[in-house]
Specification:
The chain is mainly α and 304 residues long. 63% of the residues lie in helices and 6% in strands. A hairpin with a 7-residue loop joins strand 3 and strand 4.
């Protein structure tokens, strides 16, 4: 909770600072703040952006486990189903104990080689593996994959990614409206002595067209930032697996194996917490297999 509180306070301070900057820019551009909100303040607009930006991300996080179970056709297991399931559950229990968290729910879903973790809390998470990865990996390799997913849970990556997404959403919504008002004012001649009537349908329509355009553009940059952060978390989860298993060797072997398998497709909401990823790019949630293996080989000898 302390990590979440610090994260939120830091970003609230950032939002407040950027709000002041936006107000100054609007003033210099001759945009009447009353066009953004009735009292001439940006606070209502900021509140609107925060509620919709952070609210959407939080709802997605809270529903993630339920929705993923349904969409991926996950079958929750307790180890009584057979030898493979018993080994899977006991391995997750062991790794969770080593990571200092409660044992997540364990599930199997039909599909190509992949695995993922999700959940709103680290002590009430879900770890799921595909039938494909169970069939095509050795137990030592699969144990490393499970260590990777347990590390995602122990590091609180689901919550941190949600908060990051929410703050970025807030910025996108807020500045899309601010810049749309500035551009509309510039095109209509406001700020240069000309005053057109406000509130007309044409102005309203034009404003929202600009908002949609800016949200699309800012959304692209937001995706780049989020995927950059996601790739960082993948390196951390790989290192976490090496720590839990006592050696980077099993994780390196698992990544080599993944490089020769057809990766399973995951929903966008949990793609960042899967094990498999395509070749790296600025829009990729995972680094390349080669880069991940190199990072593991470069871990310091005392990484444990």
């Amino acid at each position: 909770m302390k990590r979440i509180a610090v994260f939120l306070l830091t970003n609230i301070a950032a939002v407040a600072t950027l709000t002041v900057v936006a107000a100054i820019v609007c003033s210099l551009c001759g945009v009447d703040l009353r066009e953004l909100s009735g009292d001439g303040s940006m606070v209502p607009l900021l509140a609107f952006a925060f509620i919709f930006g952070m609210g959407g991300a939080m709802i997605s996080l809270l529903l993630s486990k339920t929705m993923v179970k349904f969409s991926m056709r996950c079958r929750t297991i307790d180890g009584s189903e057979g030898d493979a399931e018993r080994w899977l559950v006991s391995t997750v229990e062991d790794l969770a104990r080593r990571a200092g968290i409660k044992t997540p729910e364990v599930a199997i879903y039909p599909g190509e080689a992949n695995a993922f973790a999700t959940g709103a809390r680290k002590n009430a998470a879900l770890v799921a593996v595909s039938t494909g990865i169970m069939e095509q990996m050795s137990r030592e390799e699969l144990r490393a994959v499970l260590g990777h997913e347990i590390s995602h849970v122990a590091n609180g990556d689901m919550v941190t990614m949600c908060l990051t997404q929410g703050v970025i959403n807030t910025f996108v919504i807020f500045f899309s409206h601010v810049l749309a008002a500035i551009l509309r004012g510039a095109l209509s001649g406001k700020g240069s002595g000309s005053r057109r009537s406000r509130g007309g349908f044409g102005d309203y329509y034009l404003h929202h067209v600009f908002v949609q355009i800016f949200q699309l553009v800012f959304g692209i940059f937001a995706a780049i930032v989020l995927m950059w952060y996601s790739r960082r978390r993948e390196y951390a989860a790989d290192a976490g697996s090496a720590t839990l298993l006592g050696s980077p060797g099993p994780m390196i072997a698992a990544l080599h194996r993944l490089g020769n398998l057809k990766p399973g497709v995951l929903p966008d909401s949990i793609k960042a917490f899967g094990i498999a990823g395509s070749k790296t790019s600025i829009f990729a949630s995972h680094p390349s297999i080669e880069d991940r293996i190199t990072a593991l080989r470069n871990l310091p000898p005392d990484f444990r």
